Amino acid sequence: MSTNLTTIEPLGAPLTGTMRVPGDKSISHRSVLFGAMAEGTSHLTGVLDSADVRSSLGAVAAMGAQVNLEKQPDGSLAGTITGWGESGPRQPEEPLDCGNSGTTTRLLMGLLAPWDIQATLQGDESLSRRPMRRITGPLSQMGARFTPDGQETLPLTVHGTCELQPLRYEMPVASAQLKTAVLLAGIFAQGTTWVQEPAPSRDHTELMLPAFGVAVERPAACQAQVTGPQRLHAADVDVPGDPSSAAFPACAAVLAPGSSIRIENVSLNAARIGFAQVLKAMDAQISWKQTGAAGEEPIGTISVAHTADLKATTVEPQAIAGMVDEIPVLSLVAAHASGVTRFKGAGELRVKETDRFQAVIDGLAVLGVRAWAEGDDLCIEGQPDLQPQPGLTFDSLDDHRLAMTWSLVGLTGTEPVQVARFDAIRISYPTFLDDIRSLA
Ligand code: S3P
Fold first, then answer.
1. How would you class 128 by CB atoms within 10 Å of its CB: exposed for 0-12, middle for 13-18, buried for 19 or more?
2. 385 Cβ contact partners less than 8 Å away, ≥ 6 residues apart
3. How do residues 381-405 score in pLDDT, each as one tens digit?
4. Dist. CA 270–CA 261, nearest whole Å
5. How far is the CA of 437 from the centre of ligand 1 (A)?
6. Ordered DSSP codes for 275-334
7. CB 69 within 8 A of CB 58
8. 244 C-alpha to center of ligand 1: Å?
9. Tens digits of per-residue pLDDT, 91-107?
10. Are 266 and 287 in contact (CB under 8 A)?
11. Residues labelled catalytic
């Protein structure tokens, strides 16, 4: 772990003031992919400029979408995407490189399934370990083919077909990527494609597709359906701030004495702000207020302040999808709370950019905090008087959310820490350190 260590110095002052976080990653991916699928020119603003979103941009450009996005003074990308519309994606000449991005990969599988082309998807080492049969399974039932046959991991070649069959699908896991892949394919199938999830996952796809002219029905909670064939038409999308990125300054403010901050223009989508509900359940001083909307996404301000007496909480399995990317940083907050915090049914953490379940247990052990697995429950025994020892070193394992989580130990404490492979933050929040330092 000696290579590529970044020293994270304590902020040395409380976090105060008002900030914004970069554009939402999930919404940015969807704006890019739907813009590429649409007939006409879509106008996008507030798009996150990060390595993951660039994977989606590279893939759609390789298949014939005209991407004309430019860096804005606030660091976001804005401009136009002219989609391939009815003529469909162009057969890519080379494998599509999805980098580290599971969202790019899995959404592309659904996007490609209805076209008579073949495209190979590949990714970095981490992405090449992640499970794909959850996507290729239902898309194969619809008539697409994936080679090598039955393979779980990338690289995989998608063999699409313009004769896709609709599907009724009860999803085995609450996953917005899986739900979206099936719905995107269903737009082009003859008939109604219906999905049901075991728990609510983020619904950005259901909220954004109607702006692109695609009717999406939601017959009951945790259900969505599209009746094909339909077409996408260009739309304007304004991407709000990312609540998953906002979770890091929010948790930093909870932990750093004297802090009080406001984070504006964040998506307050109910399927995304589970982390704020958990912080509230831990007695943290946090509140949020809707101030408007970006398309169908509610947006608003999160206000959060230092809290000395945090208490442990239990999160039920139904709520996990609504905070799945925030569990590492919530675990760090739980390490400071009195009692045992339990994230029930958090097994999905094992198949994220890295095995975040084990990584949280190992990282908290570096801090001297006991955390353990009970089946799929992640348990953390907090220490209200926790004072990190000098000289601690954490490993991000090349995972952006772990890099930011462990950096908070140094930023909000009194001792510097070292984080190996900290540059993983480029995946979702490249300006994280500057943003958080600007509050101190
Ligand atoms: C995402 C869905 C979630 C999340 C990921 C982004 C999306 O993944 O963890 O960061 O944009 O649809 P799963 O669908 O695997 O739960």
1. middle
2. none
3. 999 999 999 999 999 999 999 999 9
4. 21
5. 28
6. HHHHHHHTT-EEEEEEEEEETTEEEEEEEEE--S--B--EE-HHHHGGGGGGHHHHHHHH
7. no
8. 11
9. 999 999 999 999 999 99
10. no
11. 325
Give the DSSP H/E element, type plus range, for residue 227. strand 223-228
Closest-CA residue, ligand 1 atom 16, reads 175
- pLDDT, tens only, 238-295: 999 999 999 999 999 999 999 999 999 999 999 999 999 999 999 999 999 999 999 9
Which residues face 297 on adjacent strands?
294
Identity of residue 364 = L
End-to-end CA distance of the chain: 30
Rounded to the nearest 10 degrees, what angle do helices 51-62 and 25-37 cross at?
10
Nearest CA to ligand 1 atom 5: 103
Please identify which residue in the block is written with the tokens 């912080």. 279
What is the 176 CA–ligand 1 centroid distance (Å)? 6
Maximum Cα–Cα distance across the chain: 63
What is this structure's pTM?
Answer: 0.98
pLDDT at 1: 55
**Ligand 1 atom 15: residue of nearest CA:** 175
Helices 243-255 and 400-412 pack at an angle, to 10 degrees, of: 20
Ranges assigned E (strand) in 22-76: 41-47, 66-71
Radius of gyration of the chain (CA): 21
Strand order through the sheet with 417-420: 5-8, 417-420, 393-395
Cα of 301 from ligand 1 centre, angstroms: 23
Q: Ligand 1 in contact with 175 (CB < 6 A)?
A: yes
Q: Answer yes or no: is the C-beta of 119 below 6 A from any ligand 1 atom.
A: no
Q: Which atom of ligand 1 is nearest to the CA of 205?
A: 12
Whether ligand 1 lies within 6 angstroms of the CB of 206 is answered as no
Give residue 3's pLDDT.
60
Q: 371-374 and 377-381: which strand pairing? A: antiparallel
